[in-house]
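User: Show me sequence and structure for the first protein, then do the same for the second.

Assistant: Starting with the first protein.
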Amino acid sequence: METFEPHGSTQDRFGAYLLPGRVHDPRVAIGQARAAEHTGLSTAWIGERLGNKDIGPLAAAVAQATTTIKVASGVTNIGLRHPIQLASTAMTLQGLASGRFILGLGRLNPAAAKAYGLPLVTNAVVADTAELLRRLCGGEKVSYSGPAGTFPKLRLTDLPDTAPPPLVFAAIGPKSLELAGTHFDGVLLHPMLTVDAVARSAATVRDAAQRSGRDPSQMRVYASVLVAPELPEQQEIAAIAARAVTYFQIVGYGESLTTANQWDPSPLTQLRAHPFFDGSTAIADYRFTRYDLTDVAQQCIPSAWIKAAAAVGSARHCAQRLAEYLAAGADELVLHGATPELLGPLMAHAANCTGSTGPAIQGCGNARIGPS
């Protein structure tokens, strides 16, 4: 594969999630988005959760409360909305945001699809949905019958005076990464990946883009990184280790992450058998808050996993860790865990760790080897 040089400046190398995890008041996102914009972050990401973080109204509110920061869904699951409804939502948000919206899509969990009475989202459905959305957002009249459904005649009646939003696909495994490189404008990588895993994932995506006749340098790689810069211990555990529990506890997701990181998956068995879960295989993130899971996290999540796949400790050390992820091939890091209003010191150090065309780790000063 050709050598890839990351594009963009320091100012567009970092984004952050708003309202991470379970929340009870979506209005908090407004202050967090303004804090993210004030801090100099480039993108405010919204992880959709049904009931309290619907991407339509929440992204619209964030777009109106800010002026420069991009607003991204990270992610909206394919299959939850009819394609014309999803395209309409995307273009309305793009108009409200004056071209700052990014549509991040993901694959609906098979268990959720079954519970909701929806068909499984196959690779063919993902690929065809991306094409349908491009055509609808571009103003085309579309007739389609295939894996994504049967739609005799689709068309958006009116469109804002702005280009369609970029399409980004959330991926972990190699087939999903190849889908992203072949059919999307970018990829959103899952939290709790090591630097090496991000490098391998970025290469897979760009290789797929090149094989499909696309320019790999135009494929934007967003790597999600859990960060806890200088947080109190309990807040740090909740932001990182307890959040990791919500990933690794899910059957399938945990295996995908350990495979991507080339880790021994045996700790997953201990985690899922913990008495706290009382034998239930229900997704922990739907039942508990992060603070409920701190004891489980300390007992079952190996410290080596946290050290290798997150950024914890002093702001300077965390900045160095972020520079390593950028050097691995990520265009932009999506900071998760600590909320935007807590990221000021980290971003001050990160500005010294990245140059205009890529990481400059030597500029970080004497960063510590491990978390403080």
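Switching to the second protein now.
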Amino acid sequence: MISLDRLGIFIAIVDAGSLTAAAAVLGQSKAVVSFNLKQLEAELGVSLLTRSTRSLALTDVGRRFYEDCQRVLSEAHGAIETARQGQQGLRGTLRLTTTVEYGSRTVIPALIAFAAAHPQLQIQHSSSSSHEDLISGRYDLAIRMGSLNDSSYRAALIEPYAIWPVASPAYLASLPARDIASLPDLQRARWLAHSRLASPLRWEVQTPDGAAAFAAQDDAAIHSDSASALLGFALGGCGVALLPQWLVEADVRAGRLRRLLPEVVFPQQGVYAVYPNTQHIAEKVRAFIDFLRAFVGTPA
């Protein structure tokens, strides 16, 4: 029977890019790492890696086996953790990634309370505007915004939210009509767009007269991969941005921004907890998802 440790060594070799680097990561000698790789290939009866004096490369079989190993180890470690936690409470490490904005507003306060409730669990939190790959990044889960299209992961809705088109009084004052009073006006506006969205300026919206297709007349004047950056550009009078209600409502109340055409409703978005699509869900992941949903007040 092939050991899980041997699979872990193989994954470490691929991730590190060499036997020497993998040995350093694992705290083992290069000879031990090389022996385990050779034994694994012998037990499988296939070559997983091609070797040269300078590099290692996965064979076609090795590439598929690497992906399978990641899934198998994730499920095995999750099962082991769940068995242990049944008697000892949550232990180990919870690794998660969030956007900067929602992370600082909601997830970090929730993690403070969650960590206090589970003092033997270590937390590793990462903030990023990009969508990190959960498997290669070794993340247990990600908190993601908007609409999900990647079916290779599982997802649990944390809470829904509205998106509002907003602009500063200074930008509106610069317009010939000094206002945006209709959907065509909004389509002709100077737009600020989120670069991570496939079509940030095309939406199906609801108006008092029914459903309508919204499309900006011109390409965005400014693109950014950060909602907080788009908020800054909007506050600076650079144009119209479509942003989460929870991010802009304080500025709208204070008069620093104005919500445009409140009678036009853009599609509702969601905050999702996303995690690898494995048969076994680690108890720490399930526990934090339940905790976060309760923290924001979403019914189970």
